[in-house]
Amino acid sequence: MLLRLFNKKHKPNPIFGALGTDMHMHLLPSVDDGSKSLEESLECLRTLASLGYRRAILTPHFQYPRFQNKEFDIERRFAEFSQQVAQAGLDIELVCVSGEYRIDSGFQARLDQPAFLTFGNNYVLVEFSLNHPMMGVDDMIFDLQMKGYEVILAHPERYPYIALDGDRYQRMKDAGVYFQCNILSLVGFYGAECRRKALAMIDRGWSEFLGTDTHNTMYTRALVEASNDRTVQRIISHNQFMNKEL
């Protein structure tokens, strides 16, 4: 991750109102590597609202063996959290809880007895390993689609082993996989190469969704900076993303 100095003079620019819904965040407290407390989650949601977001879909990690979350427990925690958010009077609606499902050694078991937490048009948000390719990923995506799910690949720009100009991304697009780029990739938060790939994907029309992937207040501070970035402003104003349909 590229460390950046944040300009404290920047104020939240509500440009993300054009998106309406953030569909990738880790703000359900204490279930993964995201927010560790109710207070932190509320602060993050408050900042996202000031940036223009009006709706939020929570997507905690489902990852074997690191985050062995169970759907029924996540839904219970979400019901409690929703009440706490309502009591705090925040100007942002929690639409539902879904998940960011890692396609890993435990994913086949999920396919055998599917209980995926979905959102929108039966969307399932999936991710790959950030470091190493895994055999059989395309077959599992196809199996997921055959079970009636629409597949969104989280932050495709962050997989260093997939070349931008190779055929892998194109094969996924041809297979009907949606892409969701991270907004912070556009300002170099994850490094220069991720930024280059994200910008190219958006330019090619490959990113149907944008997400914040917010984990904590460091992310929301970076998002405030990004809201004042001219490249981000241009991308938001000149492209149509599917977030607003959620």
Describe this structure in words.
It is a single chain. The chain has 246 residues and is an alpha/beta fold. The chain has one domain: TIM Barrel. Helix content is 35%, strand content 14%. It contains 8 helices and 9 strands. The chain has a 6-stranded parallel sheet. A 3-stranded parallel sheet has the order 1-2-4, with helices on one face. β7, α5 and β8 form a beta-alpha-beta unit. The longest helix is centred in the N-terminal third of the chain and has 18 residues, at 71-88. Residues 1-5 have low confidence and may be disordered.
Second-tier CATH architecture: Alpha-Beta Barrel
Oligomeric state of this protein: single chain
**Mean pLDDT, nearest integer?**
96
Radius of gyration, in angstroms, nearest whole number: 17 Å
Descriptive key words:
single chain, alpha/beta, TIM Barrel, 6-stranded parallel beta sheet, 8 helices, 9 strands, 35% helix
Task: Give a summary of the structure in a few sentences.
The protein has 246 residues and is α/β, with parallel strands linked by helices. It is built from eight helices and nine strands.
List the helices and strands and how they pair.
Layout: E1 21-22, H1 38-50, E2 55-58, E3 61-62, H2 71-88, E4 93-97, E5 100-102, H3 107-112, E6 123-127, H4 137-146, E7 150-154, H5 168-174, E8 178-182, H6 192-203, E9 209-211, H7 217-227, H8 230-238
Parallel strand pairs: 1-2, 2-4, 3-5, 5-6, 6-7, 7-8, 8-9
